[in-house]
Structure formats: C-alpha cells, structure tokens
Write a structure and sequence with these properties.
Blueprint (H helix, E strand, L loop, with lengths): L5 E7 L7 H11 L5 E5 L20 H12 L2 E5 L9 H10 L9 E6 L5 H13 L3 E2 L5 E2 L7 H13 L2 H15 L5
Parallel strand pairs: 1-2, 1-3, 3-4, 4-5, 4-6
Length: about 180
C-alpha cells in the first residue's frame, strides 16, 4: 500500500531571502522524496506584533492564514538562527500567535539549523516548542554548518549533505515518525 502524501510546513527564523537557514530549508524542499511536499512559510515577516487583545474574533487575517497552514501540515520544520543569544523576534512572534490556538499541540516538528553554533537559540527554541506541546522529533534534528561560508562553499556543503544522505535521512526519520503517529492515522 502506498503511503499517503505528506505536507510539511517550514518556518524560517531568518527573514533574509538569502539566509543560510532559508537555504537549508530550500534544499530540504528541493530534495524531498516523492510524496512529500515542503512549503516554506512567507508570512512571518508580515505578522503584526502579538497581542492577546487581537485574538478570537479580532484575529488578523494573516494570523488565520498561518493557522490554516499549520492545521493542514502533517508536520512542521523550523530553521532558526541565533540573534544576540536568542530567537529572532519574528519567529518568536509567529509562535506567540500560535500558543493559544489548537493547530500545534502534538504536531510533529523537526528542527533544522544551518550553523555550527547557536546553542542558546536552539535551547530556547526547544523550550518554546515543548511548552507549546509540539512533538519534537529528536532523531530528525538536522544541523549543517553553513554560517560563515561563501555561496560556493555553502553549495558544496549542501551538495555533500544531499549526496551523503544526510538530508534525506533526516527527512526520512521525520516522515516515518509522522506516519507512525496518532495525528496521521
């Protein structure tokens, strides 16, 4: 029996169009196996600052669109740089908008990181995702050191990660976890 297709929604903590974390997500998207679609969120930079006063019937349309994408996703991938030993404000704001909603509890999440450093942000991200009741898939954690490399060196590192199966192995572990989970069935 052929597996049901999976839709994965990717959140990038960096809003730079040429960031290393976006490049990592793009590589994941472009090398996803058959039956797996990865869409990179383009809403984070346009979200208003979170305010509990704007929840419920006052929720902005863009937040509803983010929620709908999260609800439709079989799993979420989060790629996040470290800014001043913490999470980027835009990503934290997006997560704040999702805290009291029902789209994320027990949703499988894969963390991808495009740097050899950034442990403060990874620790904070993990804590926030646990607090939000995401299902963090530790065995799918993907860390590839792109930070500080020029464009050609980044491409070479990513090509090697694809060729050596690092990218596909992480995605395979994530997809297996999703397909074996209660939310998928």
């Amino acid at each position: 029996m052929e597996a049901k297709p999976l839709f994965l929604y990717a959140l990038c903590g960096s809003q730079r169009k040429v960031s290393t974390n976006r490049r990592l997500l793009t590589t994941l998207r472009d090398h996803a196996p058959d039956g797996v679609t990865i869409e990179i969120c383009d809403l984070i930079g346009d979200l208003p600052i979170f305010s509990p006063d704007r929840e419920g019937e006052n929720t902005p349309d863009i937040v509803e669109r983010l929620g709908a994408k999260m609800r439709a996703a079989d799993g979420v991938i989060v790629a996040c740089p470290e800014y001043a030993h913490g999470l980027p404000g835009g990503l934290k704001n997006a997560l704040d908008w999702l805290v009291s909603r029902d789209e994320v509890p027990f949703k499988p999440v894969m963390i991808a990181h495009a740097s050899h450093r950034g442990d403060f942000a990874l620790g904070q991200l993990t804590e926030v995702l646990k607090t939000m009741s995401f299902d963090i898939v530790e065995e799918a954690h993907l860390r590839i050191g792109l930070l500080g490399k020029d464009d050609a060196a980044q491409a070479a590192v990513l090509d090697a990660a694809v060729r050596d199966g690092v990218i596909l192995n992480a995605l395979a572990k994530f997809c297996t976890h999703i397909r074996e989970g209660a939310l998928y069935k």
